[in-house]
Amino acid sequence: MKALIVDSDYIVKIVEREDPVITAADQVLIAVKYAGICGSDLHTAKGERPAEIYPRVPGHEIVGTVRGVGGGVTRVGVGERVAVEPIETCGRCYACRRGRKNVCATLKTRGVHLDGGMQELYLTTQDKVYPLPENLSFRQAALAEPYTIGLQICTRARVGAGDRVLIHGAGPIGVMVMDVAKQLGAFCAVSEIKEERLRLARELGADLAVNPAREDPYEALRAAGGRGPSVIVDTVGRTGIIEESIRNLDEGGTLLNACFSTEAVRFEMEPFVERGLTVAGSRLQSGKFGKVTGACSDRLKALEAIITHEFPLDEGAAAFALFLEGRGDTGKILIRMEEINPNTHEKAQW
Amino acid sequence: MKQLILTAPGRLRFEEVEQPTVQGPDEILVRVACASIGPGDLRAYLEGPDKPCVPGSAAVGVVVDMGKNLSTVEPGDHVALRPPDGEPPVGAMQEYLLLDRRYWHKIPKSLPFETAVFLQDYAAAFEALAVGGVENRDVLLIQSRGADGLAMLDVAERCGAACILADSSSARRERARRLGALLVVDPENEDLRERVTAFTGGEGPNVIIDPDSLPEALRGYVEMVSQAGRIVLGPGAGTAAYEMKTVTYKELDIVACRTGRRSFAKSIGYSLEYMDRAGLLIDESCRFEEAARAFSQASRRLGDGSGTVIRFGEGEQA
Questions:
Q1: A342, B59, B167, B222: which is deepest, by most CB within 10 A?
Q2: Residue A236: which of A197, A269, A286, A204 has the closest Cα?
Q3: In this complex, is the C-beta atom of B247 within 8 Å of any C-beta atom belonging to chain A?
Q4: CB B44 within 8 A of CB B53
């Protein structure tokens, strides 16, 4: 099979690899249809991970068709279309016991610590696969994983009806957060300096879309209803924006960090405590795939416009190069696998 | 009646003033039985008050008289003082206190005054533990400087949390052991992070509570706390900092805990069951006449002074 790898010199290229083979009763072999590119794949491609993970197949936004199952698999059958949960957890540590497996002490993320989905065949276990509804296309379903991230962020920030949510950044994750918050009944403002992204956020339902280079998003939010934001979600990762956010939160409000900058965020303790604020982090997702591929599947259809580019696997390097440019008209970029001949897998003994 | 007045740094004097009488329909006149020194009182004692004032923010006592609107209290009832949020502190160190009914909460008569004066600390404990989502078997680190830290330990231990208490006072560390702390650490002379990390097998505590937050400590808490951990910050001042990546990576919550106001009724409700060990919160207990000496000793002791109880005539009899 073909696989896209980031090699030890951090070069994105296509290589031929051995087909994976089912070796355990709970395993599921998937013929991957799409793997989306996410910002974290870019970190991998830029060589920003520990050297020992390379060469690595990136990609954790994975959908495809079940090609084979181990003897103990009951959740899915051959031919079924599925989305894949891309994390491996221990189930025993404090975070796992608390239902927070996304921050498992020995967490392994596909595409980072283990090979990901940018390969024609992908081996996982049955607890990681979620059948897709019939009326959802693969292309739409490729947004399932990013939507779980939006749902996780809104869950962590306890977004609910009546909240006034301000989202910094209208990239794919910012838009996902916006859509989840809207579904939960919140008023949603988006702050983004790239005009194309701002326009898309507006089209997809933002109540307020502000370019912070031209307008103060806090003033704009207050002008549109009198109060400041009760929740601010940062998907940009600049300390200045976060510090300003903490100062502008409404009483009892929550600032949610979803970025990984190593910089220090500073705030004044007295108003922080006096006004009853919360700073929370959100990373990956826990237990959100079932909801997203089930109850939220209509939302994935509604958001298809986020997908701006699609590349065949062979042109994966060009896809990464485009992502790296960070243009305003670049939304979600998908890597598409071509149909492969199932007969080439006769050797698998399942 | 007699009241204590703080006039300048380290300067206290007693003054004889007229005993107040009930005027308004919602007022309650209380003969104070016990009061305690609060962190704000000790700060004012050390740094000097903005203007001469009566110290003492926590008090319990006996109802002497009340306004005509009040049918649920009667003379002889025991009450605890808890100012409504947003109201300035009340100077509790005087023999009688006349205040609106919103300031007073009825408490069980069987609760000893000397421990009932810590109801605010227990309320703060209930609040902080709720805000921090402390559950059975969680490992909790309490950064203690006085009675509220020990109250948190008492409640958390009964909830089944594995408690670590850091306090620079050896006397409080000793009492913390008796309250069930599995590990006590002297943060002045020991490496807190090293000891806590070793105790938790490298995982870190699941919840850290700092009731009077030191801003410079936050960065260390963020590093020390476990994955999916919570950090609860009580009132503090100054610039705090945290590393964004760690908060996201561990998916932490840094939560402000303003006051125990909304948990005050709960702390009264649980008081008979929960406060049998509250005597261990006391750093020192002395008579009203010795209040100046009590302040002086509290200022020399490590901590925020909140474990010092002042007993009035009523408290003596109880």
A1: B59
A2: A197
A3: yes
A4: yes
Cross-chain CB nearest to A278 (options B238, B248, B254): B254
**Residue B203 structure tokens:** 């995982």
Contact A126, A28 (CB under 8 A): yes
Q: What is the pLDDT of residues A140-192, one digit of tens each?
A: 999 999 999 999 999 999 999 999 999 999 999 999 999 999 999 999 999 99
pTM over 0.90: yes
Distance separating alpha carbons of residues B271 and B94, to the nearest angstrom: 25
Tens digit of each residue's pLDDT (9 = 90 or more) over B271-289: 988 889 999 999 999 999 9
Q: Cα–chain-centroid distance for residue A115?
A: 17
Residue type for B244, please? M
Buried/exposed A125-140: b ≥16 CB within 10 Å, e otherwise: bbebbbbbeeebebbb
Q: Kindly state the tokens that stand for B259.
A: 């006051």
Report the amino acid identity of residue B113. F
- The candidate with the shortest Cα–Cα distance to A35, out of A9, A78, A1, A4, is A4
Provide φ and ψ at A256, rounded to 5°. Answer: -110, 125
Nearest to B242 by CA among B214, B227, B221, B212: B221
At B138 the three-state DSSP class reads coil
Q: How far apart are CA B260 and CA B121, in angstroms?
A: 8
Q: Which residues of A touch B203 (CB under 8 A)?
A: 93-94, 105
Query: Hey, what are A80's tokens?
Result: 């079924």
Distance from CA of B82 to the nearest CA of A (A): 18
Q: Is the preceding peptide bond at A55 cis, omega within 30 degrees of 0?
A: yes
User: Using CB atoms, which residue from A94, A242, A273 is nearest to B213?
Assistant: A273
Per-residue confidence in pLDDT tens, chain A, 350 aa:
999 999 999 999 999 999 999 999 999 999 999 999 999 999 999 999 999 999 999 999 999 999 999 999 999 999 999 999 999 999 999 999 999 999 999 999 999 999 999 999 999 999 999 999 999 999 999 999 999 999 999 999 999 999 999 999 999 999 999 999 999 999 999 999 999 999 999 999 999 999 999 999 999 999 998 789 999 999 999 999 999 999 999 999 999 999 999 999 999 999 999 999 999 999 999 999 999 999 999 999 999 999 999 999 999 999 999 999 999 999 999 999 987 655 544 333 33
Sign of the dihedral defined by the CA atoms of residues B99, B105, B108, B113, in that order = negative
Instruction: Say whether residue A249 is in contact with chain B using an 8 A CB cutoff.
Output: no
Give the CA diameter of chain A. Answer: 68
List C-alpha distances in Å: B1 to B32, B33, B126, B189: 11, 14, 35, 46
| Distant-in-sequence, close-in-space partners of A154: CB < 8 Å, separation ≥ 6 | A177, A180, A181, A184
CA distances from B175 to B125, B210, B234 (A): 17, 19, 22
If you measure CA to CA, which chain A residue comes closest to B254? A279
